[in-house]
Design a protein that fits this description.
- The chain has eight helices and no strands.
- It is an all-alpha fold and 141 residues long.
Length: 141
């Protein structure tokens, strides 16, 4: 209960955290089923919380990867992707403004900015749209 009181967890994540504490004869899956039945454990809520917490700092690819690592089912990830993609350019612009704020002066600086945005999980088409907008003097989208 202490884990769930802090933040939402996926079933797989909570399973891996509780597994070392399970003693012989205890049924961890039955406990997790009961938590889901009482609506105390929800992969959908965990997905929503994680997406909302990360969307301002990371791109769609990175968020989807982290959700997969947390054991979120693919159907919930695919449901979250369309709304993430809608705001990805805006998020990339905010991240770029905080980190750089000025257009790249040469190809070395441009490559550095591209690598940074890629490491944050933004797609190449979003990165190039953002940098084209910066080069044209719009300071982002």
């Amino acid at each position: 209960m202490r884990y769930l009181a802090r933040r939402e967890h996926s079933r797989a994540e909570l399973h891996s955290k509780l597994l070392p504490h399970v003693q012989e004869g205890e049924d961890l899956d039955a406990v997790l089923d009961e938590l889901e039945k009482r609506n105390w454990l929800s992969d959908a809520r965990a997905t929503t919380q994680w997406v909302d917490a990360k969307r301002g700092r990371f791109g769609t690819q990175r968020i989807a990867h982290e959700l997969r690592q947390k054991g979120i089912p693919e159907n919930l990830i695919s449901d979250a992707l369309p709304q993430l993609k809608e705001t990805e350019l805006e998020s990339a612009s905010q991240v770029w403004q905080r980190k750089f704020g000025i257009q790249p002066q040469d190809s070395k600086e441009k490559a550095k900015q591209i690598r940074f945005l890629q490491s944050r999980g933004f797609s190449m088409d979003v990165i190039f749209k953002l940098l084209r907008a910066a080069e044209s003097g719009d300071d982002g989208p």
